[in-house]
Amino acid sequence: MSDTLLSPEEFEAALRAVGAERYHNLHPFHKMLHGGQATKGQMQAWALNRYVYQSAIPRKDAALMSRVHDRDIRRVWIQRILDHDGFAEDKGGIERWLVLTDGLGLDRDYVISMEGALPATKFAVEAYVRCVTDGTQLEALTSCLTELFAPSIHKERIVGMLANYDYIGDDVMAYFKKRLDQAPRDADWALAYAKANAKTREQQQSVINILRFKCDVLWAQLDALYHAYVAPGHVPPGAFVPVA
Hints:
This protein is mainly alpha-helical. Helices cover 70% and strands 0% of the residues. α3 (40-65) packs antiparallel against α4 (71-85), α3 (40-65) packs antiparallel against α5 (93-103) and α3 packs antiparallel against α11. The longest helix has 29 residues, at 201-229. It is globular and about 55 Å long. The model has no long low-confidence stretch (mean pLDDT 95).
């Protein structure tokens, strides 16, 4: 690694290059899911396991906020918890995800229990929570930079699922539609924070590395799904077994 500080433009380009190489829109399971090749059982397995990740986001953000002494940052960051847990009339992203799992025919209590989730999913998600809890504040606040790449994958999901699966209705796409506005807002803030606070080449590299790690967390979840439900089809004991 060079000791030369990257310009803001070079730093942003380096971050975006991580997504171009490592974001999970490139994963075979993602392409199968959005391209119409997934069975309903594989769709159910994906939504069930993804709930583990969705439900962990407010826990991750609450742990992060407990470490931050800057009130202005906490005032910004609390919106992320409200986005997922809900506030007032908005029931939040976790509820919208459960509308999706309802629509796929999964029992809501079973989804919430996470009993049928893959062990690798649980390990990957908790690794993300732990990295935000134990990493530097710079790393913790910029680990969400995968949101830079999220709108494109949400658009693919909305179009691909509605076009290719007759059991998917517009109502169950509400989570992804909401994130089309929320993700760019979150990404813009995190990118600006990274540029302003990564003041050494080492700090810039730590942000790049944490973004790679977050991409690995998302990729590992799809690896686990592919291994269990596509090829070779090894479902671990106690994990969800599709009937369709």
